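I am still getting used to backbone structure tokens and would like to learn alongside you. Please make up or recall a protein chain and show it to me in full. Would you write everything just below, so we can both look at the same thing?
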Amino acid sequence: MTSFYLSRKLEAAIRSSLQHYPATAVLGPRQCGKSTLVKHLLEDWEGATYLDLERPSDLRKLEDAEWFLSTQTNRLVCLDEIQRKPELFPLLRSLIDDAGRKGMYLILGSASRELLQQSSESLAGRISFKRLTPFLWQEIAAQASLEAYLARGGFPPSLLAPDDGISYEWRQDFVSTFLERDLLQFAGFTPQTMRRLWQMLAHTNGQTVNYSKLGGSLGVSHTTVRNYIDLLEGTFMLIQLQPYSRNTKKRLVKSPKVYLSDTGITTALLHLRNFEQAAGHPVFGSLWEAAVLANLQGHFPRLEYSFYRTSHGAEIDLLVSNGHTQVAIECKATVSPKLSSGNHTALKDIRPQACFVAAPVSTGYPMTEGIDVASLPELIQQVGELMG
């Protein structure tokens, strides 16, 4: 880990939320930088209280949570790893309603708002949810190469490790800790089955999911596979990209595509220790797709994301929409990208307002009329401008 602080894009949104909502929740996977970011922000809040709910001494303060928190209502209280004590949410609602003040609670969690359903129900109208991802490329581009970003992923301890070996060891430890400790808070899941499924999904990264086939390989039902995949999504370990469904005249693929959300976790599960090994692996193209998708969702979490694929082979990796404007994005992990006939057929079917080929180039350029090759930063800028 580095001893200096790297600014995160989400900072401004969190500061604004603290001014306008009684409670702000920052959700994201373990070790993505939530605590570091929040401790940096708390330097500007005099007298703020920080409690780590995985630290026994802090948990003891909450043995009589109502009394303790009622003594803190005049200051900002940060509750880290809130999923460890979801029973606090009704109490927070009561204290918020009594105090009627903005910026009372800053809540950090490693589970999605769906898994933290109690928070959505208890604090409806009183809480703003923010999502922190591992490093976005533009947050870290001055500190790391794109090759390292793809091979090591965006988790700070992995990406900023002194060498590939230490990075790889950290990711292996992360996977083991997730399976052997973090899963224990969820009923009905076994580490061995989850590890095997996770590795299978790494091998098929970016492909449409076949629940029955996966279940047959694992010796479990397709329903169990769905539950496991939903848990991986709920703990921010993967992204389920839904198929485009507006063109009813075409026979469209109906199953979602599944991407592991961090490329470094994918390479760790595949035992790829560095960029050279990753670049020579069949999964490399999907690593680039996953990085593009994760960065777009990190910058623009409120947009709609889907993919287009017909039974006749027409395909576009990614469609991004705000409900009015639609952008088509094809991801090519090469500096000399070309579109297939299936790509061109899909573009004729969809007729998007703009089309980009996302490639690991330093500077983009026009490919053909209406289609531009774009680097990842250029793509983010263009999508932001087009979506307003």
The domain at 11-131 is CATH 3.40.50.300 (Rossmann fold). Residues 135 and 364 are 23 Å apart (CA to CA).
